[in-house]
Amino acid sequence: MSERIRLGIVGYGNLGKGTVKAIQQSQDMELVAIFTRRNPQDFHIDIPHVKVEHISTALDYQDEIDVMLLCGGSATDLPEQTPQFAKHFNTVDSFDTHAKIPEFYEKVNKAATEGKKIAMISVGWDPGLFSINRVMADAILPNGENYTFWGKGLSQGHSDAIRRVEGVKNGVQYTIPSDEAIDKVRSGANPTLTTAEKHRRVCYVVAEEGADKAKIEETIKTMPNYFADYDTEVHFITEEELQRDHSKAPHGGFVIRGGKTGDNNNQIYEFSLKLDSNPEFTASVLVAYARAAYRLYKENQYGAKTVFDVPLSYISPRSNEELRRDFL
Amino acid sequence: MSERIRLGIVGYGNLGKGTVKAIQQSQDMELVAIFTRRNPQDFHIDIPHVKVEHISTALDYQDEIDVMLLCGGSATDLPEQTPQFAKHFNTVDSFDTHAKIPEFYEKVNKAATEGKKIAMISVGWDPGLFSINRVMADAILPNGENYTFWGKGLSQGHSDAIRRVEGVKNGVQYTIPSDEAIDKVRSGANPTLTTAEKHRRVCYVVAEEGADKAKIEETIKTMPNYFADYDTEVHFITEEELQRDHSKAPHGGFVIRGGKTGDNNNQIYEFSLKLDSNPEFTASVLVAYARAAYRLYKENQYGAKTVFDVPLSYISPRSNEELRRDFL
Question: What positions does the domain Meso-diaminopimelate D-dehydrogenase C-terminal occupy (chains A, B) (predicted)?
Answer without folding.
Answer: 124-277
